[in-house]
Design goal:
The protein folds into 2 domains: 59 residues, no CATH class; 27 residues. 71% of the residues lie in helices and 0% in strands. It is built from 4 helices and no strands. Helix 1 crosses helix 3. It is elongated, with a radius of gyration of 19 Å. The relative contact order is 0.11.
Length: 90
C-alpha cells in the first residue's frame, strides 16, 4: 500500500498524524499517489491505526479531543457575551 510513497513523504505523513493533523496527512498522501479523497482517507487511517498500535507514545494528543475543547470554549464565550449584553441593556 505504501510502496508508491517516497520515504520522505511517508515520514511527513507520519509526523502529521503524530501531531493530530490528519487532513494534512491525507493531502500529502493524495499528492503522492493521485488517489481520490476516500481512498486517501482510508489509507491514512490504516497508517494511523498501525502507528497507534506500534508507537502510541509519539502522539501529541488524544484523537478527537481537540474539537471538544474548542467547542466548549466557544459556548462559554457565547454565554458570557449573552450575559454581558443582557446585564448592560438599560
Amino acid at each position: 500500500m505504501n510502496a508508491l510513497i517516497p520515504d520522505e513523504k511517508l515520514t511527513a505523513i507520519c509526523d502529521a498524524l503524530f501531531a493530530a493533523r490528519k487532513i494534512e496527512a491525507i493531502k500529502i498522501y493524495r499528492l503522492c499517489t493521485g488517489v481520490g479523497l476516500y481512498e486517501a482517507k482510508q489509507a491514512v487511517e490504516a497508517i494511523e491505526a498501525d502507528l497507534r498500535s506500534t508507537s502510541p507514545e509519539k502522539f501529541t494528543r488524544a484523537a478527537g479531543k481537540g474539537c471538544l475543547g474548542a467547542s466548549a470554549s466557544m459556548v462559554l464565550i457565547g454565554l458570557t457575551l449573552v450575559w454581558w449584553f443582557a446585564s448592560h441593556r438599560a
